[in-house]
Amino acid sequence: MSRGFGAAGFGGGPGHGKLKFDDDELHSKISKQLLLRISKYFLPYWKQTLLVMIVLCVSAVLGLLPPILIQHIIDQALPDKNLHLLLLLVLASLGATVVSGLLGVLQNYLNSFISQNIVHDMKNQMYSHLQQMPLQFYSSVKQGEVITRMTSDISGIQGVFSNTIVNFASNLFILATTAVTLFIMNWKLTLLGIFVIPLFILPTRKMGNFSWKLAKKTQEKFSEQNEVIEETLSISGYLLMKLFTKEEAEYSNFKTINAEATNLQIRQSMAGRWFMMVLSTFTSIGPLLIYLYGGYLFIQGELTVGTIITFVALLGRLYGPVLQMTNLYVDIKRSAALFERIFDYFDMDPQIVDSPLALHINASGKDIEFRDVNFAYQQDKPALRHISFTAAAGTLTALVGPSGAGKTTITNLIPRLYELDSGAITIGGKDIRDFTLDSLRSQIGLVTQDTYLFNGTIKENLLYANPEASEAEIMDACRSAYIHEFIMELPEGYDTVVGNRGIKLSGGEKQRISIARVLLKNPPIIIMDEATSSLDTVSEYYIQQAMHVLLLNKTSLVIAHRLSTIMAADTILVVKAGAIVEEGTHDSLLKNDGVYRDLYNKQFEPKILS
Ligand code: ADP
């Protein structure tokens, strides 16, 4: 069985999460496929892109004018003492420079327009893609990593669009126009000037690979750093760190990673600089050769001074782009790594999607049936085996059993948070895979143990379930969930901010708010995981009352931890090691003298006595 992204799947593979540096990857080329894929992002902005190309082309030609005009100043205006021509040539040169500058501004605007828009599109694409990823993705990928991809990787890509690609095109135009001009002026001198070019190009390949490796390592370190921040400076992580007095250890861990990341960055910037220094030395050889051979031709009377000076100036326009492009080669390799990381995310299959003929479901009054359901999170480690049962419409089914038995897994399969491996789950006799995910999930209300409230007001949290709910409806739901009085006693009532993840509320209060939230949604199926944490008698009473309202006339599956719930259940399923080992009512199961009786003796009886 392949899930595409098991815990191991995210750990390896080129571009996945933790990056491996195998030789194949380092020597891999920037493939046509990758280029094609990148170029598709330009499609919506093809007009602007075309305009940028025209601007670059015109700028490249305009850039040739000043050196050529200087040749005419030296060879014509000065020897002829022609002031009028001198003035004309100087003004023309100035004009070319001003127009070039103006075109530069236009090009900058277009660049940032295109690159920002492409990044905007990519961010949207990434966000909506990540939304489609199943729960399994989030349980296996480290949190910091998603943030890194969404922020620094995508920002890196903005640089590629605004600088790398444009620089590449600009240099290519300058190179082409200059080379043609030089050949027209004097092909022998041009060949001499070109002679030194291989000196810069040859070491570039090695440098490219080295730099790519460093870039990937740096990205990996940043990702690691983000993970540490996420894990230790979030509420639960912070609590864990404080309670186990791990500040020193965590700080030292952070310092090590931070030092490594800094070191890598310094190495990365220095690697580029050393490389440039060596290359610049080579570029000074070209002009010297021109002065030598050109000077000889001048002495022979074959060349003018103006031509030599213009030639050397134009040679700068030839070497500049070659140097920049060799450096760009490094950038392009680096960018390819970034794109690979992003595209790897885009390529991950959301897996749980609507079937082509998916129908809308209305689950009211319909039975839920598990038919020989098997499921495994990881290959060869079945979490559920041959699960078959029916939760009749309008009844309460309680799931009991030791921790890790598979109760949560059973309930998570109903809204298709995970996809079963074999067997079927039906609602009203129809397979849940034949329904649209949206309609299926709209029929289910989930009350989890760890209620997630976002950092907003209580009202905002409640409206999340039903944005159209009126004030009266919200209050009604809260009354039914036995939380209205409590909310009203808060300083700002329904407008009280609950804090990160609802930290300002107790477990019982949060669960009652979560019940109110589901009441506002009012779905026909309720899945509830009762809080295991011990509640005081008052909270316990309120929760029970709230649950009573919540489950009334609903088809419900409750992972039960309280005797009162179990006693109220129409059917009890005893789950052990991924299988249903017993099924019945409280009384019938007690008589059985099996797993349930044992569980009851250990978990519930002492509580009754105490
Ligand atoms: P229960 O709700 O009965 O305590 P669960 O359904 O949460 O049990 O877990 C059943 C088994 O599946 C356990 O062995 C647990 O470790 C494993 N499991 C749960 N969630 C995941 C997951 N996202 N990835 C891999 N294994 C998991």
UniProtKB/TrEMBL annotation:
Residues 368-602 form the ABC transporter domain. Its main location: membrane. The keyword Membrane applies. SUPFAM superfamilies: ABC transporter transmembrane region (SSF90123), P-loop containing nucleoside triphosphate hydrolases (SSF52540). The chain crosses the membrane at residues 50-70, 82-106, 172-202, 274-293, 299-319. Pfam families: ABC_membrane (PF00664), ABC_tran (PF00005). It is found in: Cell membrane. Residues 50-334 form the ABC transmembrane type-1 domain. Keywords: ATP-binding, Membrane, Nucleotide-binding, Transmembrane, Transmembrane helix. It comes from the Bacteria. It is a multi-pass membrane protein. InterPro entries: AAA+_ATPase, ABC1_TM_dom, ABC1_TM_sf, ABC_transporter-like_ATP-bd, ABC_transporter-like_CS, P-loop_NTPase, Type_1_exporter. This is ABC transporter. The lineage of its organism: Bacteria, Bacillati, Bacillota, Bacilli, Bacillales.
